[in-house]
Amino acid sequence: MGGDLDTAPSTRRGPGGPPSEGLEKTPSMASLVSNQPTRSCVPLPSPRRARARTGGALVTATVVLAVFVLPGLLEAQPTAAATSRPTQARPAPGSLSDTRALAGWWDASHTTFPAPPLITHSLVVERLRALNESDPRFFPLEEIGRSVENRPLLAVTVGRGPTHVLLWSQMHGDEPTATPALFDLLELLRVHRDAPPVARVLDALTLTIVPMLNPDGAERFERRNAQSIDVNRDALRLQTPEGHALKALRDRLSPAVGFNLHNQGWRTSLGDPPQPASISLLSVAFDKPLTDSPGRQLTRRLCVVIRDAIEPLAGTRIGRYSDEFEARAFGDNITRWGTPVVLIETGAWPGPDPDPPLVRINFVAIAAALDALATGRVAEADPQGYEALPLNDDRLLHTIIRNVTIVAGTGVPPFTGDVGVVAQRIVRGVDGLRRLGLLARIDDIGDLRTMGALDVVDGTGLTLAPLFLPGASPGQEVTLPDWTAVAPSPQTITVGQPAWFLLLRPIPATGALEDLATVQRYRVERVIAIGEADAGRRP
Ligand SMILES: [Zn+2]
Prior knowledge:
The chain is α/β, with parallel strands linked by helices. The protein has 2 domains: 85-387, Aminopeptidase, CATH 3.40.630; 396-530, Urease, subunit C, domain 1. The chain has helices spanning 30-34, 61-68, 79-83, 99-109, 121-134, 178-191, 196-204, 215-220, 241-253, 294-314, 330-336, 355-375, 384-387, 513-516; strands spanning 51-54, 57-60, 141-146, 152-159, 163-169, 205-210, 257-263, 269-270, 275-276, 279-283, 318-320, 341-346, 396-406, 415-430, 433-446, 452-458, 463-466, 477-479, 499-506, 521-530. An 8-stranded mixed β-sheet has the order 3-4-6-5-7-12-10-11, sandwiched between helices. Strands 13, 14, 15, 16, 17, 18, 19 and 20 form an 8-stranded mixed β-sheet that branches. β1 and β2 (57-60) form a beta hairpin. α10 crosses α12 (355-375). The chain is elongated. The N and C termini lie close together (10 Å). The structure holds zinc ion.
């Protein structure tokens, strides 16, 4: 998704990347910050303004969005707010195996961040540096490499235990939910290091955390790194400096367990009727036959520990990621190299603000898993519970308008059906700020009873038309243009079109002759305008 952004870095490394020997502890991070590439300070360009010709009038997508689509467009927090932190220490959670205690602590004490897609590498560096400066010996920080565009790849270590655990997030730049959860974990360990449940984790484990492995991708909010390589398909060839650094770190630490933290697409569903796969877990395989091993037994048990911990928060929206072996991926190879890996994939969550519940669930999942490792409680988990988790499917839409009379705007006669919309998040630069938006389009039309959605609108007795009137509002009376006689609506209800609709309630005819003919009046029931339109960037 980097087409909008200036991708020319001020400093670019060759595909071989920096040498892995540069793995030095750097208690002072001042040099790192001064080495920030200039690109990160360059304001992002203005967004392209998608224009829609509606009813002879031109309106910009921005206007429509401002009126109707607030849930999809959240403004970046100003830096001051983004960097503020809770100043008062709250009581430590009584137990790290108790979901209520963990979630309650998170509610009261989680760190303040912008929405995860808006978290920048500079903010990650700033937070890690602050942790390091708060206690350099408790939070040693090191640069494990540099990204293609020369951004430092930072790892923070905490704990004094014999069992090493490696956690990394944002190997894919547009998969950020676990990143703030890791900072919440670090905050828990910082503030409550002497509280017994926390001290037990610190005594048993040594955690090494890489909160943002692919900062160049994160800068553009896209999956791949600046070479356009999917870092998670580079575990064998090691042509990405980011992958190279992760491999070198793994080889040096030989951790007992790894946590590979990702996001999965919002289409990912579970069960029937399909519901969001908000968290999917995987005990990562290390070969094609999916051979069992003590390491895989351990990660299966950890998945069960996580399921038990997050079930009170996520209910039945917890699933199992496909365990098909991917020969090029890091999780699979890190497991093969001797560090069994748990994959946590965060998916969709219904409602206008999906991030807080998902960050909270990630925090509880990771804290509970570490507690189970530290206490040995993991051995009590029944690995059979892992197989009982429902497998990921892909039958979730963003929105379905069900059982509605569709006037498509193309001139075809009205028909009854469901309209399904898909959406994905994007980050754009607007007036120098990073802004989170939503790209949406009509994905399917017809009988969509086998699909689920984050938002389901019952259209029974109603008519759905393209949003042909700019500024239409509920209660307004409208007459539909006769699209059989005039040119088709510039925007139609067909697959691939923007998800901007008028949901209309027919007004009963008065009995007058003209009302019984083709002229039909409607009252606007609801304006449904999901996301921005951008023909070049389909979800
Ligand atoms: Zn991923």
